[in-house]
Design goal:
Elements: H1 13-26, H2 30-45
């Protein structure tokens, strides 16, 4: 898949540092983690339906 679009976001410096450190410790690229999250978010929220990122509480 060709990657030609960019995304720039602002986050707290400590969040950025912790994210990069965690990615490095797991030996994964930060950009791939973000892309994976975006795909999962779309899959779980497309069409306005609630997804597994925020599962409903079972009140049985």
């Amino acid at each position: 898949m060709t990657k030609s679009a960019g995304l720039r976001i602002r986050v707290e410096p400590s969040l950025h540092r912790q994210f990069l450190e965690t990615c490095q410790a797991r030996k994964v690229k930060a950009s791939e983690v973000v892309r994976d999250f975006m795909r999962l978010y779309i899959e779980n929220n497309a069409g306005g339906r609630q997804g597994q990122l925020f599962p409903e509480k079972n009140n049985e």
